[in-house]
Amino acid sequence: ACARYGGSVRRRAAGPDEAPEAGADDGAGDGADEGGPYDLVLALTTAGPLPAVTETALAGFRRGPAPGDGPAVGPDIGPVIGTAGGDERIGDEGYVVARHEGVTVVLADSATGLLYGLFHLVRLGEEAFGAARPAEHHRPAARLRMLDHWDNVDVHPVMGQVERGYAGGSIFWRDGALRDDLTRVRAYGRLLAACGVNAVTVNNVNVHATETLLLTDRLRDVAAIADRLRPYGVRVHLSVNFAAPVALGGTATADPLDEDVRAWWAAVTARVYEAIPDFGGYVVKADSEGQPGPHAYGRDHADGANLLAEALAPFGGVVHWRAFVYNHRQDWRDRSTDRARAAYDHFTPLDGRFRDNVILQVKHGPIDFQVREPVSPVIAAMPRTRVAVELQVTQEYTGQQRHVCYLAPMWSEVLGFRPWGPAGPGVAHVVAGDVADGAAGGGLVGVSNVGDDPYWTGHPLAQANLYAFGRLAWAPSSDPAAILDEWIGLTFPAAAGGNDATGGDDGRLREALHEIMDDSCGTYERYTVPLGVGFMVRPGHHYGPDVDGYEYTPWGTYHFADRDGVGVDRTRATGTGFTGQYPPPWSEVYESLARCPDELLLFFHHVPYGHVLHDGTTVIQHIYDTHFAGVEEVERARLRWAELAGLVPDAPHARVRELFAEQLRCAEEWRDQVNAYFLRKSGVPDARGRRIP
Ligand code: GCU
Questions:
Q1: Which residues form a coiled coil (predicted)?
Q2: Which one from 390, 396, 452, 505 is the annotated catalytic residue?
């Protein structure tokens, strides 16, 4: 930004008591090129109350005199900046940005804050150096904004290098070793900082044999990654095997209450911090889908999490303990066991027992990253526990980065959901720790969608999900369309220019991308799984339709369709009682067939095909209509993209064009399988007489 705008970067430390001299021939303190003129000042301040720091520090910055320009103009930006009240600070990762009398100023308390401020200017582009801008103070809502890589060091025989990865190999690991060239990791750090992400877990939550060694023998690898990411304010975390003390031959048991086990974790953790002083902490998937955990020793999740938390506490590290715990060996004949209930049933009795450096990491929905689920009731049920919400940026159930599916609208709905009703706090407040009498927030976690693909994310448009994840973690109330707009401007600068005179495209690309992406998640939902019932995907890899694929399996993900109706009865009156895990008003809203939102109807109720939705359509007709509509929307998006040839560079244009062909094929397959299935089950023809195979 500085080079482009011919400015110079000034870096100085100024406390409230040492306002710089406002001399006519003096710029802003002790920078190298005294005398300006400069357009941009990036300044580190010492921590102090925000108004005092900004007023005194900024009052000293002057636009330096250009040769022959006469005396410097003293911009009086102090009072403009000093709008924040009381003794508020800029904050660790925060920054203040302003433009006044020809100088753009970014102020921060830390280098990371300055970096985020600089990326803010990049987002603003020309605007940052144009008209005056009143001071704005930005800082992240959530302190922890973490991406979990489900990357394996070894290539796993079934899951490959990256479990649920759709963007090629791992950027960290290759065939059993750390990559020789970590240039890409450094670039990744920069990309993450641009999105606002500040933590990364470098290996899969399913920790296999080789990956268990990252904690000890292969710690050097983790340290090398940490070195590359550190300059961008990104800390490294590690997924660990709960049974590591046994697996690595340290102790005879992994019992969390055993003294030797505690000593083992303490010693190992101390060595981790010797190698990586700013190490973030551990992520643990325990007693979940076959991973080891405290249950084997008759202990509970609090015992397990506290063991690791105790080892990390002296160094300021945290444990992300995952709440994704359920019976994956359920008998499908057993109608009383409900997977949706499991996390709440396991964890709410433990509220208040976790140490304060334990973060309970809860998937946003009660099942597993489906395109439509209610918000997990666990998020509102653990007031004395730090809670993080986990989103899936990688598109396991949403088109696997072969389909365009912009996920920010779904995430924004989750973050905006108010579990206690409209007057209460929302999910975003819980993760930010902004709930009266609640625990500190645990932040936002996303399962990464990045790999060694040249576009980072396989589908070039899936980058928008990575970007949106970071932006929503920073500012959860951001408008998803506005985030997309930012991403478009940063990714396709010509589109940002906006008119032919500046070499732009008159906003055509921007407009088309909004048409293609804004509601693409809605489109995906329409041609796939109806009314929140979930799954219906091919077992194993989870791509494409298979309506009964999981119906008679042990996984607990059923739709119960028969000739009369479909859906899961989770009511208290006649079903599994899951609705009772919500506080009012949702416990009542979801319980009631009349009040339950249509889009979640089949998640909460088993209804006849003739059940009439709020919009007057029957369930069966809704299934037909949405599946035809979804495919038509994909076809329109595909044609819209084709028109953009020449506006988008050739290579990504061709990649997306090919992917659209696959998306259309797959959407038609979904439409035909789902429609045919329900026509055959129900015997009810399409009221509009369309062809259903
Ligand atoms: C899903 C996914 C698994 C993953 C699991 C988890 O079930 O299919 O690959 O391990 O979630 O989040 O732990």
A1: none
A2: 396
Pocket test for ligand 1, best of 203, 329, 368 (most atoms within 8 A of CB): 368
In the chain, the amino acid numbered 246 is V
**Structural domain contains residue 101:** yes
188 and 134 co-located in one domain: no
Pairing type for strands 103-108 and 95-100 reads antiparallel
- Angle ∠(625,629,633) on CA atoms, nearest 5: 170
532 with 643, same domain: the answer is yes
pLDDT of amino acid 98: 86
Residue of 26, 368, 373, 453 with catalytic role = 368
**pLDDT of amino acid 73:** 33
How far does the centroid of ligand 1 lie from the alpha carbon of residue 189, in Å? 25
First to last CA, the chain: 57
The pLDDT score that the predictor gives to residue 253 is 98
Q: Is 164 in the pocket of ligand 1 (CB under 6 A)?
A: yes
Query: How far does the centroid of ligand 1 lie from the alpha carbon of residue 375, in Å?
Result: 18
State in Å: Cα 471 to ligand 1 middle. 24
> Is 434 among the residues known to form the active site?
no
User: Does 124 share its domain with 203?
Assistant: no
DSSP, res 265? H
For residue 9, the model assigns a pLDDT of 37
d(CA 114, CA 123): 14
Give the bridge partners for 95, in sequence order: 138
Residues 172 and 306 in one domain: yes
> Which residues form the domain of 96?
2-138
33 is an active site residue: no
How far is Cα 132 from Cα 100, in angstroms, rounded to an integer? Answer: 5
Mutate to test the pocket of ligand 1, among 149, 156, 158, 164 (most ligand atoms within 8 A of CB): 164
In a domain, 559, yes or no: yes
Task: Establish if 350 belongs to a structural domain.
Answer: yes
Q: What is the pLDDT of residue 428?
A: 98
How would DSSP label each residue in 551-591?
TTSTT-------SSEE-----TTTS--GGGGSPTTHHHHHH
Q: Are 367 and 344 in contact (CB under 8 A)?
A: no
Q: What angle do helix axes 463-474 and 408-416 make, rounded to 10 degrees?
A: 20
Last residue within a domain, chosen from 107, 138, 169: 138
Quick: pLDDT tens for 442-483.
999 999 999 999 999 999 999 999 999 999 999 999 999 999
Q: Is 510 in the pocket of ligand 1 (CB under 6 A)?
A: no
Co-location of 225 and 85 in the same domain? no
SS (H, E, C) 452-501: CCCCCCCCHHHHHHHHHHHHHHHCCCCCHHHHHHHHHHHHCHHHHHCCHH
Say how far apart CA 324 and CA 42 lie, in whole Å: 43
CATH of the domain at 631: 3.90.1330.10
Count structural domains, the chain.
3
The CB of 163 under 6 Å from ligand 1? The reply is yes
Ligand 1 centroid–CA 79 distance in Å is 52
- Asked whether residue 181 falls in the same domain as residue 129, the answer is no
Q: Are residues 243 and 285 in the same domain?
A: yes
Domain membership of residue 157 (yes or no) is yes
Ligand 1 contact via 339 beta carbon (within 6 Å): no
Atom of ligand 1 nearest to the CA of 542: 8
Low-confidence ranges of the chain (pLDDT < 50): 1-37, 47, 51-57, 59-85, 498-503
214 and 74 assigned to the same domain: no
Active site residue 126: no
Instruction: Tell which of 491, 513, 544 closes a domain.
Output: 491
Bridge partners for 391 per DSSP: 446
ipTM above 0.85, yes or no: yes
Tell me the C-alpha distance between 687 and 684, whole Å: 9
